[in-house]
Q: What sequence folds into this?
């Protein structure tokens, strides 16, 4: 049966039938991390959202080219046109080369993605690897009349662009309202208009990361890199562009303007945005004291956590909320997810033991169709999980002798449960052998976090990790080759 997928398009603000530009092929771009700090759970949820999109499109038979960039330059403090590059600032604080910072936190990002079973993209380009292409796009935008040079910097002319194309259509912003709400910032005198944004910034001599350009030594604007890398690998117009809700404005709005300003083409058919995380009803943030790192969540080493939770439990929990909805973390919710996850995996282990009958008491095809329908309705993982729990009920009832299924229906139920649990939701069953491997993986992750803390001279955190593990009878030993661990019997 042909599956028709509907996606909520942030640009049109409605669900639309997904029709790729090239039949059978999908181009998808997701804004990746800025690698100057450890990954936070908001990042995990965003990349999990598009991991599900990637998995399901492949499950439906599409050939997907998934591009997820690494921002390793040009992301200014405050995301404005002034301030210090976040990576350069971190490099100065830690007395390291910028590329050491990039490599360190890129490695950490990949560790976290593996921890939560998030697939690698098809291509993972970096901003520093595409400086030439960024300069070329700036030249095209200038040639088309939508940018200007000022004191060695280049700014995008928003009002000029808005004369022909609607700036603000993705976020729903009105340009006159934007102008009214724009506060004065240092460096605004270089701009013709307060709404204009930098696509190339002149670098003063103290700026660590800088490149030669037709306008002097400088560095590209943050918004520009995604325009360049998405179109280089996916073409002037591609199917899906995703990211967190916080990127809709100004980042994605500026991307559209840059792409159209350079090529005259709308860059994206379907814009997708994931929503934020809260903790006990409050926004998750360091300033609130309620921001969990992945390491804290799996170890339980946080004042707001009653205990640690396995990566698969956390993944299962996140999938119980639709990606467009706010997701609230609490001990109660995590523990409920843990119970649900264990109930589902326990039932799936029973599948191969079920004895067939001559008749069936349930319509398994209806459950299979409902699973597809849930995912075809804008990747509705909460509804999908509810249908899988209907499968759990049937499995347990057959095992208890309360229901009967024929061999073909048992085979179909097994196939449906296995495919949607493993391939679509990306969940794994944590049996005894898997737990041993999981323990090893978690400990390597924790030791890496401790090593990073020591490198940052954050000895309070380093000692806290060691002492917390000691309370669990896990001994840490530092050697010249690195830290090792053992369990005290």
A:
């Amino acid at each position: 049966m042909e599956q028709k997928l509907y996606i909520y398009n942030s640009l049109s603000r409605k669900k639309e039938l997904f029709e790729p530009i090239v039949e059978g092929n999908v181009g998808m771009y997701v804004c990746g991390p800025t690698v100057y700090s450890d990954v936070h759970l908001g990042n995990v949820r965003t990349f999990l959202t598009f991991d599900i999109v990637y998995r399901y499109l492949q499950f439906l038979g599409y050939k997907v080219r998934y591009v997820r960039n690494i921002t390793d330059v040009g992301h200014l403090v405050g995301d404005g046109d002034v301030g210090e590059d976040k990576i350069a600032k971190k490099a100065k604080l830690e007395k390291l080369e910028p590329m050491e910072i990039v490599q360190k936190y890129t490695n950490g990002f990949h560790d976290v993605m593996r921890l939560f079973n998030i697939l690698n993209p098809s291509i993972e380009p970096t901003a520093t690897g595409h400086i030439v292409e960024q300069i070329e796009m700036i030249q095209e935008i200038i040639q088309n009349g939508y940018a200007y040079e000022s004191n060695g910097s280049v700014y995008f002319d928003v009002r000029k662009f808005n004369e022909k194309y609607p700036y603000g259509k993705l976020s729903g912003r009105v340009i006159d309202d934007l102008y009214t709400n724009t506060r004065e910032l240092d460096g605004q005198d270089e701009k013709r208009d307060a709404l204009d944004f930098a696509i190339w910034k002149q670098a003063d001599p103290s700026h660590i990361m800088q490149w030669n350009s037709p306008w002097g030594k400088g560095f590209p604007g943050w918004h520009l890199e995604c325009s360049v890398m998405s179109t280089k690998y996916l073409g002037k117009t591609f199917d899906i562009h995703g990211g967190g809700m916080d990127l809709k404005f100004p980042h994605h709005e500026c991307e559209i303007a840059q792409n159209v300003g350079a090529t005259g083409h709308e860059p994206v058919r379907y814009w997708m945005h994931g929503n934020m995380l809260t903790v006990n009803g409050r926004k998750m943030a360091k300033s609130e004291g309620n921001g969990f790192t992945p390491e804290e969540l799996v170890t339980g080493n946080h004042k707001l956590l009653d205990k640690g939770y396995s990566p698969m439990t956390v993944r299962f929990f996140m999938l119980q909320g639709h990606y467009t909805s706010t997701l609230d973390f609490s001990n109660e919710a995590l523990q409920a997810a843990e119970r649900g996850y264990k109930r589902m995996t326990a039932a799936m282990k029973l599948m191969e033991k079920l004895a067939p009958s001559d008749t069936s008491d349930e319509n398994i095809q209806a459950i299979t169709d409902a699973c597809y329908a849930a995912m075809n309705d804008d990747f509705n993982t909460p509804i999908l999980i509810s249908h899988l729990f209907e499968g759990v009920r049937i499995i347990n009832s057959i095992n208890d002798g309360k229901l009967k299924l024929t061999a073909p229906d048992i085979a179909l139920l097994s196939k449906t449960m296995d495919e949607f649990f493993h391939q679509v939701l990306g969940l794994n069953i944590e049996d005894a052998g898997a737990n041993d491997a999981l323990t090893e993986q978690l400990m390597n992750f924790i030791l890496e976090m401790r090593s990073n803390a020591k490198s940052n001279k954050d000895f309070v955190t380093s000692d806290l990790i060691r002492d917390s593990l000691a309370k669990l009878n896990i001994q840490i030993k530092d050697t010249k080759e690195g830290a090792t661990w053992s369990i005290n019997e």
About this structure: The first helix runs from residue 41 to 59. The CA atoms of residues 135 and 213 lie 7 Å apart.
